[in-house]
Amino acid sequence: MPRLSWFAAPLLLSLTACALPAPPGAAPLVGSEWQLEDLGGRGVLDRVQATLAFPEAGRVAGSSSCNRFFGSYTLMQDRIALGQLGGTRMACAPAVDEQETRYLDALQKAQRLEVRGRTMLMHVQGLEKPLRFTRTKP
Question: Is 126 helix (H, G, I), strand (E, B) or coil?
Answer without folding.
Answer: coil
